[in-house]
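Re-running Aromatic ring-hydroxylating dioxygenase subunit alpha to confirm reproducibility after the cluster update. Everything else is unchanged from the original entry.
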Amino acid sequence: MTTTATTTDPVAEAADRLHATGLRNQWYPVLPSHFVANGEMKRVVRLGEPWLLFRRPTGELHMIADRCPHRSAPLSLGQHLGDRVACLYHGVQVDGDGTVVKVPGLPGCNLEGKRLVTSLPVREEHGAVFAWFGDEAHPEPAPLVLPERLTDPDTAGFLNYAEWGAPWRFYIDNVLDPMHGAFLHGTSHSMAGGAKSARFRIRETGHGFFFEKTDQVGVNFDWVEFGRTGVDWVDLEIPYQPYAGPGGAFGIVGMVTPITATESAIFHWRTRAVQGWERDSWRFLYRMTLEARHHEVLEQDRTMLEEMPEDADTGENLYQHDLGVVRIRRMYRADAARQAAELAAHRGEAG
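Result of re-run:
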């Protein structure tokens, strides 16, 4: 009797994990800033790993792995000591850089002074905490450049945060599919107009691409831009009806951060180019009326994506409207394979 040994490709397996739980070596939004007040700490799972955010009483924010270097107990169960966290299990104290600063049970222990806990570079921008998720070969963060819609002082906006029970890539597929707006959101206050058939094209930019209708502009969800500027984002506009008050079109900047392979953190900055009294008028109208209507649209997306099977992006029958989806999927698959190969090579050189 002969047996056949089965072998696995560790690089391919690593690429699959990256594709499932999120690419590394880029910035991701983690939480709205107000979720972690001064003197507080909060546990989160991002890119399949547990993390602890804690803010000093002075406001400085830190993000470290939620794992004590002594016995791997969750630091999030411990005590916030201002500039450090004390593990509940044996009192080991870790600061915001991941350095063990005190071992109360054995003062002078050789753990003290060593950086034994992973810490991530963090920045707070436009109401959100951003963290650099680098790998061993890329610990230093790249520049974080946000889309112009967020940095324009003449544009007002609100950050909406949600957690969905669907893979992160489903969100990207959904946004790179403008045609779904005419059907799934066809009865909404902002996407009821326009044709239910269209042709699309991809238009390249210096940092990504546009996916846009060729035969309809300024009527519905007619285009989306994908950008990579240290962080991956999508940007789109939906024309407002006259009852939405003065100002330009309704703009959305969207980002997604994997929580696990099947859960996602969704960030939407809802914006409008308005100044002066129009800015105040729109912000009031948004809070009083429009926010609830936009939430209904978002819930339609969430419900649809959460009801899809986990392998929904395999075995499909795609057509011309799906050019943007195909483009983004190929890009992310190639990136996952490249990152896995680069990290394997780095570890081989280091070892």
